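Note to self: keep these together.
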Amino acid sequence: MKGNLSREMRRPSGSRSIARSILVVVLILATVVFAVHALALLYDGRYSVTRQDYWRIYALDLEFPFPINALYRYNDHPTFFPSLFWLPILYFFQNNQTLLFWTGQAVTLTTVGLLLVSLGRSPSLGLVPRLALGLLYTLASLWLGKINVTASGGFSCMTSLLMNAVVLGFLALGRLQTTESARTRRWLFAGVLGAGIVATFSFGTGMAAWPTFLLLALFYRLGWKIAAALAVAGVVNLIILLLLPNNGESAVSDGLSHLLPDLPQIIARYFQVLGAPWIDYGSGWLSRSINPSTSWRESSACSEWLWPFTV
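Structure:
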């Protein structure tokens, strides 16, 4: 009797079921409408000609043959994997920036798709929370506030390819937690290592994938062997990154010979990468009284203290 009563109490009433159905439809429509609208606006504001850093990037790409040009860092940012998208367009499609724009959007939409897949692997979430998070992921990925990145096909390839690798690494680590087959675990761990490599050599902030994977492995209790392997892989990738040629000035010196003296600065960069979004968010609240005509970094004593952490 009590069991039947509890089931009846958990069963949604007719009005609640209708409201839930309406909410589901609204969330789906909002996601689709925003995505289509954002893509239309991005297309209208796309970079149809070479702009910004790509003058220097293309100059170097044309000066050296492949793969030497792809191995160069630009202002300390490795771009090996993203360059595999724009180099064929540069060589074979007359540097068609519209084609590169759609390539970047395809990579960005792949990020959204992977994030949605991660929601599908969360059995504790109901349909409405999943759709709400799907809308949030779509808003964050196609937000027009970062149009200086998303309007550029090359920049989109850099940042979104990094995110694709990180999300795939997260998914593989999650599978490692539940998979018992030794062969499957080896393949999954190889996937995590591959994701870290792609993230590292897609953009400068990709190095943050390694400590993130390490912390997640410890949280999942995957064992000290996996944790140690991730730590070693992160250090090896960092050394390789520092050995790559660089075409611009950077706070991190080039070459392995400068690794030990610059190690404290490298560690500080790790924390800057991980903490910069939160510090930028907090500094916005702290600088409300600043004259909008002046930079908050120049006007607030507190913001001046925060400035080194947001570079």
